[in-house]
TrEMBL record:
This is DUF4434 domain-containing protein. It comes from the Bacteria. Pfam families: DUF4434. Keywords: Signal. Residues 74-298 form the DUF4434 domain. Residues 1-36 form the signal peptide. Gene3D superfamilies: Glycosidases. InterPro entries: DUF4434 (IPR027849), GH (IPR017853). The lineage of its organism: Bacteria, Bacillati, Actinomycetota, Actinomycetes, Micrococcales.
Length: 361
């Protein structure tokens, strides 16, 4: 997730309560209005049907940085079991290769040109399989290059990087293909990528080239991308303006899931404002034959200190009322209930509060 600092402000949650209530339906047994049926290019695995008292996360992003060599297998197993106990179905591995660093979180083939940094990917996949969860496998991330205009507006560079993504996908598929439910393209479109229609279309075509290639693999597995809506703040734009700018990118991307990052605790947007932006985004994704999901940013702390679950839930209710599947960025840094982890006590408290909100024991 692209993090913007120093932009959190008082969100006036109490003042937005009436607007949120207007968006939120009566949630009986966790039911919410179903999102409009969309026929995607590749079938998207069914998400959790766990009954909860309120809208719940159905998937969570996992970072290879979680694997630090201290007690990996036990920590991964405990966190994944807790995630599933809270109703989740899917694990989204954020990336397998760090392009800027030149390394990989799995034993990459020499032909890829990336050396092995750790073994997070195979560990995550094994744990997810044991827990009976779907895995969306991330490709190469470029956290520095993706904001470099000399690269992202350079068609030669984009073509070369698309080829790198394809090469990494081939290697991952050869090693883990039978365990992959879907792919994740971790080049998160930010405001700089969609600032003009031409630029948005160009970056969309890059995503489309990668998506089309991934769709050729066994059974046309679905493809996900996660645009970063809060990056609009640095340009002085609203959430709605960013969604409008995304239109050419979404149309050209050929992805099956647009997991739009909501910017919770990173902007001054209210739950109602975010819900309105997502409603607009859904019109675009429907037209592009893609599903719209919400990637809700869940920091343990922000500039104002701890971020309790009580500040999170109005956003879950507002987006859940639209029938948009909710995903968390990320479970292992906000509510993994393991006191041996850094900030484990605070995360355990968040996990307990979240399950209480869901009506789960």
């Amino acid at each position: 997730m692209s993090i913007i600092t120093s932009v959190t402000s008082a969100r006036g949650l109490a003042g937005a309560a009436a607007a949120v209530a207007a968006l939120t339906v009566s949630l009986i047994g966790g039911a919410s209005p179903a999102a409009a049926s969309v026929t995607t290019r590749a079938a998207v695995p069914a998400l959790s049907t766990t009954k909860t008292a309120a809208p719940a996360f159905r998937a969570a992003f996992w970072s290879p940085y979680f694997v630090d060599g201290s007690n990996d297998a036990a920590q991964i197993a405990q966190a994944m079991a807790a995630q599933k106990a809270a109703g989740d179905t899917d694990v989204i591995i954020e990336w397998s290769v760090h392009y800027d660093a030149g390394d990989a979180a799995y034993p990459a083939a020499a032909s890829t040109g990336f050396w092995q940094w750790n073994d997070a990917v195979p560990q995550f996949i094994a744990a997810a399989k044991k827990a009976g969860m779907h895995v969306w496998l991330g490709l190469a991330v470029v956290p520095d290059s993706v904001n470099d205009l000399s690269k992202i507006t350079n068609q030669t560079w984009l073509n070369a990087f698309a080829a790198t993504q394809q090469k990494v996908a081939d290697d991952l598929y050869a090693k883990y293909g039978s365990s992959i439910a879907g792919w994740y393209i971790p080049t998160e479109p930010a405001q700089v990528n969609v600032a003009t229609p031409a630029r948005a279309a160009q970056f969309g075509r890059y995503l489309g080239a990668v998506s089309d290639y991934l769709h050729t693999h066994d059974g046309k597995k679905p493809v996900m991308v996660s645009p970063s809506m809060p990056t609009a703040i640095s340009a002085g734009l609203s959430a709605q303006q960013f969604v409008t700018e995304m239109a050419p990118l979404i149309a050209a991307s050929h992805v099956d899931v647009v997991n739009l990052q909501d910017g919770f605790e990173m902007t001054a947007w209210t739950p109602a404002q975010e819900a309105a932006a997502f409603a607009s985004a859904k019109k675009q994704t429907d037209a592009a034959h893609a599903q719209l999901w919400a990637a809700v940013y869940t920091p343990l702390r922000d500039g104002n200190g701890a971020v309790p679950v009580s500040k999170l839930t109005p956003y879950l209710r507002a987006l859940g009322a639209l029938g948009i599947p909710l995903t968390e960025w990320e479970f292992t840094s906000y509510m993994a209930p393991d006191t041996s982890l850094p900030n484990g006590a605070a995360m355990s408290q968040n996990y307990a509060a979240y399950k209480a909100y869901l009506g789960l024991r």
